[in-house]
Amino acid sequence: MDRKVFLGAIIALLVVAAVLTAGCVGTQSEKKTYIVGIDGDYPPYSYVDESGKFAGFDVESIRWIAEQEGFNVEIKAVAWDGIIPALLGNKIDMVYSGMTITPARAAQVTFSKPYWSVDQGVAVKKGSAVTMDQFKAGDVTIGVQRSCSADQYIQSDDFFGQAKYDQMVKDGKIKLYDTFPQSMVALENGLVQTVIFDDVNIKDYIKAKDAIIILGTIPTGEEYGVAMRNGDTELHTLINNGLTKLMASEKWNELLAKYIIEA
Length: 263
Known about the structure:
Blueprint: H1 3-29, E1 33-38, E2 41-42, E3 46-48, E4 54-55, H2 57-69, E5 72-77, H3 83-88, E6 94-100, H4 103-106, E7 110-111, E8 116-125, H5 132-137, E9 142-145, H6 149-155, H7 162-171, E10 174-177, H8 180-188, E11 194-198, H9 199-206, E12 212-228, H10 233-247, H11 250-259
Parallel strand pairs: 1-5, 1-6, 9-10, 9-11
Antiparallel strand pairs: 2-3, 3-4, 6-12, 7-12, 8-11, 8-12
Helix pairs in contact: 2-10, 2-11
């Protein structure tokens, strides 16, 4: 073969390879990126692991959905009592972090299809003489995460009602914490006698702690959904399609086995 022809052929191949590679890179970079707001201290759904990386049932779920549906995600921890304002203020694009679908929240945002259901659990120290009747009467000190569904539930007319709740907060009978783990540490240290929170989270927290038990469960049948802005219809479709695929996949069973404690 003529040397000039040979070199020309090599150069042509290199140019084609470069174009193809650039095309692949371009396709990846052109994927839309959505910012996912989570509670960074909310095991087993979303938290920061020992290596400093985001982990949990919901974190793995959204990453799987993003891969299946062809978009990128950036995970961002946001204080729970400010997470819906962050969504409405375009600082994040969705909340995927065990958020209970409630009428008050649904008036502000659009939720995906439900993907999980929980009840409210009440935790006490092992050996405590506290009863569920005392808890329901408000005769004990209660720890709860501020603005979570448990906090909203005990404010509702189905439980204490707003007036009694406000008085209990004023009297120190209800103590509000920024995160669920903080409320459990308060229980361990004797600062409160009980903690109310989603039963799955309590079960996960106490699995390695012999000093705390679940006193009882209140069947609320709350459903979790992914919260998005009302006008983001394309994202709504992506998330609902992704959830349908996820819940029908083997990945769903893997996540349940890895993160969710049923017993």
